[in-house]
Design brief:
The chain is α/β, with parallel strands linked by helices. The chain contains nine helices and eight strands. The two termini are about 25 Å apart.
Length: about 250
C-alpha cells in the first residue's frame, strides 16, 4: 500500500515493526519513503530539514540518503563515483556528478566556490552542483562516522543498477522509464507502486520519477537491514572527517 497524500505521516513509530527509510532532496526539503516490515507497506511524506528526519524516525533500522556522504579535499575524485560511472556507462554515467571539495561546498557564493574548487582540485564547480551544495552541507554538518552503519549514501541510478546488474533501458522521466522502474521496484519490494497518473506526486510537490528514486533508496535500506547490500568501492575511502566515501546498493 502507498500513502501518497503528501501529509506528514500521522503515526509516530511505535517500534512494534521494523522499518527503513529512503531519503532524497526535493524542492520543499526532503522526500521520505518509509517501508515497514512485515506489512510490506510504503508511505511517502516530505520534511523540511534533514535533522527532523533523524529525530522523528529515530527507530528506523537503516536510512539510505541520495546525497553524497563523505567529501573530498583535493584533486582526487571519490573512488565510489568513478566506479559508479564505470558500471552505469553512457549516458547514465552523467547522473553521477563530481562531488565538490568540502571547502567549495561550504562557500558563501558561487564565485567563492569556483575559486576554492579551482584552488583545491584544479576543477570548476558547475552551477547545477553548486545549487545542490546546501543539501550536501546540511547532511555533512550532521553526519559522524559512528552513524554510517545506519545512515549511508545511496545513488538512485546505482540502486536501480543493483536490482538487475545492468543500466535502465529508458530515461526515468519518460512514461516507459517510469513503468520500467516501477515494475522492478514493485517486484523487489513485494508491493505494488502506483502508476504514473495515480502517484500523488503533485500533492507531494515532486516529479513522478522522484518517488521512484526514493523508493529505490528504501529498497537499498531494506537490503542493508537484511545484510544483503553491497557497496562501491569494496574497500571504502575515508575523508578528512572520518566518514566513509561509498555508495551502497
Amino acid at each position: 500500500m502507498i500513502d501518497g497524500s503528501g501529509r506528514e505521516l500521522e503515526r509516530r513509530e511505535s517500534g512494534e515493526d521494523p522499518y527503513v527509510l529512503g531519503v532524497n532532496s526535493c524542492p520543499s526539503g526532503w522526500l521520505i519513503c518509509c517501508y515497514e516490515e512485515p506489512a510490506r507497506r510504503l508511505s511517502f511524506c516530505v520534511m523540511p530539514k534533514f535533522a527532523d528526519i533523524l529525530q522523528y524516525y529515530d527507530r528506523a533500522e537503516r536510512i539510505a540518503v541520495g546525497v553524497p556522504i563523505g567529501l573530498p579535499e583535493g584533486s582526487r575524485e571519490r573512488c565510489c563515483d568513478v566506479e559508479a560511472r564505470r558500471r552505469l556507462g553512457f549516458p547514465l554515467a552523467a547522473a553521477v556528478f563530481r562531488v565538490p571539495v568540502r571547502p567549495a561546498a561550504y562557500a558563501e557564493s558561487y564565485a567563492a566556490a569556483l575559486a576554492l574548487s579551482r584552488e583545491r582540485c584544479g576543477k570548476e564547480i558547475f552551477k547545477a552542483t553548486w545549487a545542490f551544495c546546501p543539501k550536501i552541507v546540511e547532511v555533512d554538518r550532521i553526519m559522524r562516522p559512528e552513524m554510517q552503519e545506519r545512515v549511508f549514501e545511496a545513488h538512485r541510478e546505482v540502486c536501480f543498477w543493483g536490482i538487475k546488474r545492468s543500466p535502465m533501458r529508458h530515461k526515468k522521466k519518460t512514461p516507459d522509464g517510469y513503468e520500467e522502474r516501477r515494475g522492478l521496484l514493485s517486484d523487489a519490494l513485494c508491493c505494488e507502486l502506483a502508476k504514473r497518473d495515480r502517484c500523488h506526486c503533485q500533492e507531494l510537490g515532486v516529479e513522478p520519477s522522484k518517488l521512484l528514486d526514493t523508493a529505490a533508496a528504501v529498497l537499498t535500506a531494506h537490503r542493508a537491514f537484511l545484510g544483503e547490500s553491497e557497496r562501491f568501492p569494496h574497500e571504502s575511502e575515508i575523508d578528512a572527517h572520518g566518514l566513509r566515501m561509498e555508495m551502497v546498493y
